[in-house]
Amino acid sequence: MAEIVLNVEVRERTGTGGAREARRAGKVPGVLYGGSQAPVAIAVRENEFRKSLYTGKLLGHLVTLKYGDETQPVIAKDVQFDPVTDMPMHFDLYRVDSTGVIKIAVPVHFKNHEASPGMKAGGSLEIVRHDVEVNAPASAIPEELVVDLTGRNMGDTIRISDVVLPKGVTPVLSDRDFVLATIKVSSAAMSEIAEEAAAATED
After folding, report:
1. CA–CA separation, 81 vs 101, rounded Å?
2. Which of 78, 98, 118 is the last residue of a domain?
3. Can you give the pTM of this predicted structure?
4. Domain range holding 163?
5. How many domains would you assign to the chain?
6. With contact defined as beta carbons under 8 Å apart, do 71 and 65 qualify?
């Protein structure tokens, strides 16, 4: 099952007032959505929530919600933070079937910049998509989609078909081979080329 267990309490008061009341009591308010059941206002003790959050295994992963003796597999899809203190202020959980498939956004990370001839020649990586929405097994959601830049040259376009997706994972947008990034000539490289050309002309 999931690595993280969130012990939740059901909040009697909803809305802004109920959320503020939960925060004053040292809890982070949230809402449980999804499935055939109505949304439920919940709360988790702040220290427990922060501990789970800072493991890096909360957002986008299968989590076990625990209320008394009842448990429910859920996905944490959103956490809102205070813009000043960066403290968690609110979260959203979604009920899921742990054996089913869910739609979720997964971050895209690029590696081996130093092994790209285009990057070594002064090119710049222009990222079009920082995450991709995929259909994935709830019990095997990928933490990231990795793009290997090894051998990539100036002018190359990197598409979703260039990414090796884990077993059972497919892009939600399936009707085209969409672009993730391109390697372009940077303005600094352009300036250097222009300067070299000018110097050659003078010589």
Report:
1. 28
2. 98
3. 0.69
4. 102-202
5. 2
6. yes
Quickly count: other Cβ atoms within 10 Å of residue 34's Cβ.
16
Q: Which of these three, 98, 126, 148, is where a domain ends?
A: 98
Task: Tell me, yes or no, whether 81 and 121 share the same domain.
Answer: no
CATH number of the domain where residue 58 is located: 2.40.240.10
pLDDT tens digits for range 67-88:
988 898 898 888 999 899 888 9
- Residues with Cβ within 8 Å of 173's Cβ and at least 6 positions away in sequence, in order, are 133, 160
